[in-house]
Amino acid sequence: MAEKISLEQGAGGELMDNLIKEKILKHFSNNSKKTEVTLSMLDDAAVVDDIVFSTDSHTIQPIIFPGGDLGSLSVSGTINDVSVMGAKPMALSSGFIIEEGLSMDTFETIVRSMGVYSNKAKVPIVTGDTKVVEKGSIQEFMINTSCIGKKSPNLDKNIQEVKSHREFNKRWLLDSNLENGDKIILSGNIGEHGIALMSFREGYGFETSIKSDVAPINDLMESALFVGGIISAKDPTRGGLANTVNEFSEKSNIGIIIEEDFIPIPKGVRTACNMLGINPLEIGNEGKVVLGVVNEKAEEVLQELKKHNLGKNAAIIGEVSKKVRGVVLKTKIGGKRILNKPMGDPVPRIC
Predict the structure, then answer these.
(1) Most distant CA pair in the chain, distance
(2) CB distance 225 to 157 below 8 Å
(3) Which residues are CB-contacts of 121 (< 8 A; sequence separation ≥ 6)?
(4) Whole-number Å distance between alpha carbons of 176 and 43
(5) Does 128 map to a domain?
């Protein structure tokens, strides 16, 4: 029987990783001399001739959910992928694929939301495309957004600060930049986006207290870069925090120790996860960032994050260490266990 694509292969984590590495990358060339951060590096965006470029397709269910909608998600998610490279997002494109029969009121609600969030982030939508397909062809409404950005002036300042504490020869914030002794900072609560969508979708009722964290983080990143000392950054979307720190560890070829007790998990998220048998560390988020920071600047970066509404619950959650392999989670009761990359996000169709 011919091999077929499964839903899990698009949900982040190890299965999606394998699909990309084994079935996609081999067909795409990365030979351009102008491409500094290539597709094969699998960072959140590419860098071509000093232009940072990322694209993302969004298919979620439901398309309007507690705390956001398909529109706010599509704008925020793509802005964030450019921001975590150390770039200042400049402009967005938007491609619509609309299922015949979608309510015009719902359509306009989502498009209006895109305008609100792009204005809030000061990143305009400047070009796009619209297609309508037969009913049953897709799931209501899908949006592809792309974003371009330029190196933030604060990134150069940030890198100079890094160099004052250790050798550093990189020009961008890459997953592969971590070294022994660096600290891992999480900008806030995890699990809210995935649990809000699943609860609303399945009718569990948790949505009364849990709302999606969807938000553009470009302003938060600019503030953190101004303080300096950041070497890596990534937004923990599909596959959640567990996937993000494992990507850091794999690409930097060094271990990471995470302190479970330091991870900010809201009570409602923890309760929902316990009831449903889901690991909150594997749930996708849409308004958070995980930072790798040189030890000497970690506390200062943390305090800067806490000044912002998006970073008020930020915490130093771990440390890069050559004493371990992979990612090790120090549990609340004092034990240790391997924190593996998830096979996929346990809550599908949330981004």
Answers:
(1) 59
(2) yes
(3) 75, 76, 79, 89, 216, 218, 219
(4) 9
(5) yes
- Domain contains 15: no
Range of the domain at 275: 24-338
Residues lower than pLDDT 50 in the chain: none
- pLDDT for res 207: 62
Residue 177 and residue 232 in contact, taking contact as beta carbons nearer than 8 Å: yes
Predicted confidence at residue 31, as pLDDT, reads 67
Domain total of the chain: 1
pLDDT at 208: 66
pLDDT tens profile 266-290: 999 999 999 989 999 999 999 999 9
Q: Token digits for 45?
A: 């965006």
Peptide bond before residue 62 is cis, with ω within 30 degrees of 0: yes
pLDDT at 13: 81
Q: Quickly count: other Cβ atoms within 10 Å of residue 261's Cβ.
A: 11
Task: Tally DSSP H helices, then E strands, for the chain.
Answer: 9, 15
Query: Helix, strand, coil: what percent of the chain each, to 5?
Result: 40, 25, 40
Which residues are registered as beta bridge partners of 88?
150
